[in-house]
Design a protein that fits this description.
448 residues; Rossmann fold; Helicase, Ruva Protein, domain 3; 3 domains; five-stranded parallel beta sheet; 20 helices; sequence-specific DNA binding; DNA-binding; CheY-like_superfamily
């Protein structure tokens, strides 16, 4: 239940307010003097949501100076606490000055019950919203500060969704457990694996990468476990496998869903025992390797289809880190774009709008390539939308116009996708912002 502190020397006033607020499920504390009110506020600081204070406390005093001093004392100690000023002697200049100083409202006695209750409820709701926002921001700031103690390998991010993944990655890095990083291609899964390695007990060991999707099935076992000379055609000398190379460090198995069933069975044995044999050899070898794997595949669906071993899946997936697509973490787009663009170049507003409006099917990898191209093609220090080579940006280039003007549904859909940001919606539709505004006006679509 929200709580209001009433500071007034008139007992009849405090009683009337207490009864009024009780009818609206609002608790009330009361004090008869500024000193008593400040003491009560300190005692119940965590519970008090709003203060209603008189402006005059001494007999035959109407200057309001006591109320001004009390208000300033409250603001000094509790700058975010809303304060309503209540007095029988209304001085307009004093009211204006105190409103400028942060008073929530200034009401004259006798008050209007309906207006007072409405004002109090509005301020309480606003205070609750502000507290929730502050708590969320404080939590995010605390997490960001916690992340500063870790080696993040220079990763660039701003979106809370990415921050959550980073926080979890740093948490699990210290534990000797297998980690599966899932997410679409090009989202930065290898960078997350590097962060896990950099903050793990084997940070000084090797970090070895094997892309299971880039090799023929018949060579994957040799890549993983090595091969003795003559083990297969072309093996003229013994070769070390990735497990041996990663001994004492981390082995990152990218596109693990592409590992053939025979390789899955042997990988499972290594994970269970730490032992393996090279192809063509009978000598057993033992290694200590941290496994981090990654996939863009639906491994549970592959298990149901019989193409991925369920026991291996649970061995690899002790902890899963789900890295969202770039479009699902829009706060990262512009920081990454500026990072890839480098020094000496800047994004114009139309370029920023085009970047935010693009769907990024190729994720961070696509963004990196787009910015590399824009850096080469932009004539001056500023990069405009046309320099990006994106479909929507090209359509919005000066002198171009769409073949068909977007209808009401298309505009409404674009505005919804852009969260009401007209510049983003215009870039998606291939219009300038002014042209979209004119089209919205003709169709009777209200501005967001």
């Amino acid at each position: 239940m929200p709580t209001v502190l009433i500071i007034d020397d008139n007992a009849a006033i405090t009683m009337a307010l207490e009864v009024l607020f009780s009818l609206h499920d609002i608790a009330a504390l009361s004090a008869a003097s500024p000193g008593e009110g400040l003491a009560l506020l300190e005692q119940h600081a965590a519970a008090v949501d709003l203060v209603i204070q008189d402006m005059n406390f001494s007999a035959d005093t109407t200057s309001g100076e006591e109320g001004v001093a009390l208000f300033r004392a409250i603001r000094k100690r509790h700058p975010d606490l809303p304060v309503i000023l209540l007095t029988a002697w209304t001085h307009l200049d004093a009211a204006v000055d105190l409103i400028k100083a942060g008073a929530a409202d200034y009401l004259a006695k006798p008050w209007n019950d309906g207006r007072l209750v409405a004002t109090v409820k509005n301020l309480l709701e606003l205070g609750q919203a502000n507290r929730a926002l502050r708590q969320r921001l404080q939590g995010e700031l605390r997490q960001r500060r916690e992340l500063e103690q870790y080696d993040l390998r220079g990763i660039v991010w701003q979106d809370p969704a990415t921050e959550r993944v980073l926080h979890l990655a740093c948490q699990v890095a210290r534990a000797d457990v297998a980690v599966l990083v899932s997410g679409p291609n090009g989202t930065g899964k290898e960078r997350i694996a590097e962060i896990i390695q950099a903050n793990s007990p084997v940070a000084d060991g090797p970090f070895v990468v094997l892309n299971c999707g880039a090799l023929p099935a018949e060579l994957i076992e040799a890549e993983l476990f090595g091969a003795d000379a003559g083990a297969y055609t072309g093996a003229s000398k013994a070769r070390e496998g990735k497990f041996e190379a990663a001994d004492g460090g981390t082995l990152f198995l990218d596109e693990i869903g592409n590992l053939p069933l025979a390789g899955q069975m042997k990988l499972l044995r290594v994970l269970e025992t730490g032992r393996f044999e090279r192809l063509g050899s009978n000598r057993e070898r033992k290694v200590a390797v941290r496994i981090v794997s990654a996939t863009n595949a639906d491994l549970p669906a592959m298990i149901r289809a019989g193409t991925f071993r369920e026991d291996l899946y649970y061995r690899l997936n002790v902890i899963e880190l789900k890295l969202p697509a770039l479009a699902a973490r829009p706060g990262d787009i512009l920081p990454l774009a500026r990072h890839f663009l480098g020094t000496g170049k800047a994004l114009r507003p139309d370029a920023e709008a085009a970047l935010l409006a693009h769907a990024w099917p190729g994720n961070v990898r696509e963004l990196k390539n787009v910015m590399a191209r824009a850096r080469l093609l932009s004539a001056g220090p500023d990069v405009c939308a046309a320099d990006l080579g994106l479909p929507a940006a090209a359509a919005a280039a000066p002198g171009s116009a769409p073949d068909v003007e977007p209808d009401r549904d298309a505009i409404s859909t674009a505005l919804a996708r852009a969260n009401g940001i007209v510049a983003q919606a215009a870039a998606e539709l291939g219009l300038s912002r002014q042209a979209l505004y004119r089209r919205m006006e003709r169709l009777g679509i209200a501005r967001p």
